[in-house]
Design goal:
This protein is an alpha+beta fold and 613 residues long. The protein is built from ten helices and 17 strands.
Length: 613
Amino acid sequence: MFKKLISLLIITMLLSVNTVLNPIRITIAKGLNIQNTATISTLSTDVTLSQPPKEEVIYGKLNSSGGVDGLYVVNSFEIDKETNIIDYGKYELTKNLTSNEDLILNNDSVTFTSNDDKFYYQGNLEDKVLPWDFEINYTLDNNPINPNDLAGKKGLLKIEISTQRNPNVNLSFYKYFMLQLSVTLDTNNCSNISSTGSTVANAGTNKIFNYTIMPNTDSKIILSADVKDFEMEGISIAALPFSMDIAIPNTDNLVDDLNELSEAISLLNEGSTELNDAVLMLKNGSSDLNSGADVLDSGLKSLNQNSTSIVDGSKKIKTALNTINKQLSSSNTSIPTGSFSELPQGLNELSEGLNSIATGLKDLNDGLSLAYTSLDSAMQGIPKAISEKDLGELYTENYGNPTFDLLVEHYKSSLTIKGTYEQVKPAFIQVNMGIESIISNIETISTTITTISAGLDESLSSMDALEQLPELIAGLATLSNSYDEFHQGLKEYTGGVSSISTGYKDINSGIGSFDSAISELYKGTNELSQGTNELNTQTQDMPKLINDSINNLLSSFDTSEYKAISFTSPLNTNIKSVQFVLTSDSIKKEVITIAKEVEIKDTLWDRFINLFK
């Protein structure tokens, strides 16, 4: 008797504990405001009884604008023996979908007992909230329109569907669940349909546009179509945990290729830098060439301009010598000695004039020699021609590169200038040698005249001039004849200088154009060098960045850390799966039915009664 009393007392205590714990669970959930959250998932395992494996399918009815009109859940349990089950959720009403057994709805829990292998019940949720906020907007001919007014309309229709996270619901659903939207349009009343980011399926006259929205992503979907007598089925939305069996490829080969690409870019940068340095040297050389060419051109112009004065001066000297020679040759011995006293002075002045001409020609020749040396050095700095084969290979490697095309044009121009210079180079040498020859002849003539003048002056002072007259006449005759030859050579030389000066104008103009073109080329190669340097800097870590990006991309599809939680209440445990099935209202024209008058036939009883009327 005592043992029975103890057993009854223990049973009573267990029932009391269960009765007390249930309100505590509900009170905790309400107090922490954790409806549809998982903040006390660890706490729930301590205060709830274990449940058999459970699956939840949430069905939702959306209006045409995307708002939630109603939600209900089909809860299913896998049961291997008769079990008393307490399931949690805030329901307006529940319905047993498996048996006739009553469900006990008590505050935020549903209690029942079942021994079926699979038990289903439906619960209509009090809270009309989903993990996502949906918004559906319509415009007709670019004017917003209420979907309730859209049925039967005609025009250009645009449908815009927006999805984003509802911050009031556990983040896990938004983070791990994938949305699949399906929009069905009938081609009988929709044409010129435009949509991006969708896959299209045909079902009879319908076109079904399917969209996939990845987890943790907001989206905006836009469709447009020309419509007439418009109608549309409701938009279907399914949400389920993202799962994809991705075979992660071996990225070693890709990384190796990227390393090679990075190294190639580094080599390209080195090549463009070397090219830029070479073009800079060419630019500096072309600048020196242009300066030297300008000096040479100025010297030739000056020499050409002074040629007339030189020839005129030489002509006067020639005339003076011829006059003196004629006068002396035609005179007799009766010429007074005093007539010769002025001759040495005149000869000295003639010698000084020749010396002045020689000095001017020396200065000019020094300037021309310096300019020619600079010009020749710059010309020798132009590289040799590239073979047609090598040039063809370079064209292949740099096909479509405008900077390379410009470089080739300047390269060909430089070769043309160098070739032209090689042709006129002998003329420059002759000009230099000719001036030196003229200077030498002038100096010889000047020295001879000075010698004659000194000898004549000495003779006049020391002896009878008449005795020396025959020698003087013979010497002046020889000087006059020699100077005639010198004067004729001077004329021919100055004529050659004039021709060279005229022809050199084109060469100097080409060198100036070449210098300007090289300056423009340097701007291009400098920009190319800066660009390749920036590209090289940005791609040094490219293999690592690409590898990290691949890993990050693949990790975004990794759902290994996902653990299913209950949508109806965080107090539910042992959740096997959760998914959502949502449908918006369709847009249909209102069907007006006209009631027909039905002829009522008399029954057998009516006929029996009518017999007594």
